[in-house]
Design brief:
Blueprint lengths: L2 H16 L1 H5 L5 H5 L3 H8 L2 H11 L1 H21 L4 H21 L5 H16 L3
Helix pairs in contact: 4-6, 5-6, 6-7, 6-8, 7-8
């Protein structure tokens, strides 16, 4: 096994150990977190106590998938702030996919699902042709 393969395997194991949500937060800066609702900050980087409070407040099933909703908002915000067509559309496409993930998993009665549907529609409308 060569060094590149070993490094790749270590990277994959690190991602699995920290979770995919942790892997994506490296893309975010403090301003990005400030643009997100407080439950997103709790889900993505909060203490165990803060996560527990939000889990109790919104329910286990919604909290479990909340990071996809949060990343959908992040990519939507990033897309709206990007004027170069290719990068804007890439961010908005990521946003649509993250929202679709939660739309497929959260019950129709969920207020977060309704917000995800609205945000997904917004991302689609903002995509440059």
């Amino acid at each position: 096994m060569n060094m590149g393969s070993i490094r790749g395997a270590i990277f994959v194991l690190a991602l699995l150990a920290t979770g995919i949500a942790g892997a994506q937060t490296h893309l975010m800066n403090e301003l990005d977190f400030l643009k997100l609702p407080p439950e997103c900050s709790a889900r993505l980087r909060g203490s165990d106590a803060t996560k527990g409070m939000w889990r109790q407040r919104i329910g286990d099933e919604q909290f479990l998938h909340l990071h996809h909703y949060c990343f959908g908002l992040f990519f939507l915000n990033r897309g709206m702030a990007t004027f170069e067509k290719r990068k804007r559309n890439e961010n908005l496409d990521h946003s649509v996919k993250e929202f679709q993930y939660v739309i497929d998993r959260w019950p129709a009665s969920s207020p977060y699902r309704k917000q995800a549907l609205e945000a997904q529609q917004r991302a689609r409308l903002l995509t440059m042709r």
